[in-house]
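Submission sheet (multi-component)
Chains listed below:
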Amino acid sequence: MSTLLPESFYLSKDVLHIAKSLIGKVINTNIEGKFTSGMIVETEAYRAPDDKACHAYNNRLTNRTKVMFEKGGIAYIYLCYGIHHLFNVVTADAGLAHAILIRGIEPLDGISTMCDRRRKSKIDYSLTSGPGTASLALGITSKLSGISITKTNSPIYLTDYKTFHKERIFASPRVGIDYAEECAKWPWRFRLKESPWTSKPN
DNA sequence: ATAATGATTCGCT
DNA sequence: GCGAATCATTATG
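Outcome: structure written.
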């Protein structure tokens, strides 16, 4: 059996370290009576105040970003391009706006439910690769932003699963953040090497 | 109160 | 490869 990731997991280390550690962990969702889960294969770290790509750059505090300033172990979910609900894990102590975007998962349980939500008749590699589609397949919406992810009775929680050697985790620049100038080059995107469930290489 | 925009995806070429 | 879809969030008046 896999064990629940405790709150201390999100507080003990730097967000970059935790982003790497999340590769191989499992995200479980229990939403609208349906249980789904998948192994995380791709993440990106966002770290205020000096990361221009982070919504909370320079500790900008708004109604949306305030969730990131809370203590680690909760979900930060927001709508992008008016269509996609992107799921992030908040880390670090209260006052530090650090978060990790989940960009890709490998489906494990509830695959038929995920296909329904994605309006696909059968499973393929596009089912959960990419932050918007992964959230959709798992049933995650922005209404759930701010909830705890460290309780098994929560609609979203993470569990331990596999540990990969660091040689199998590939770091590269983040995508979709050209506006962030020099920060756009920082290798804060982490992928499981040779996993077909990640979005394509940069 | 209003207007601009984006941590994306999908369908067409 | 390119562009549209589509709306909460944000900054500004």
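Remark: The mean pLDDT of chain A is 94.
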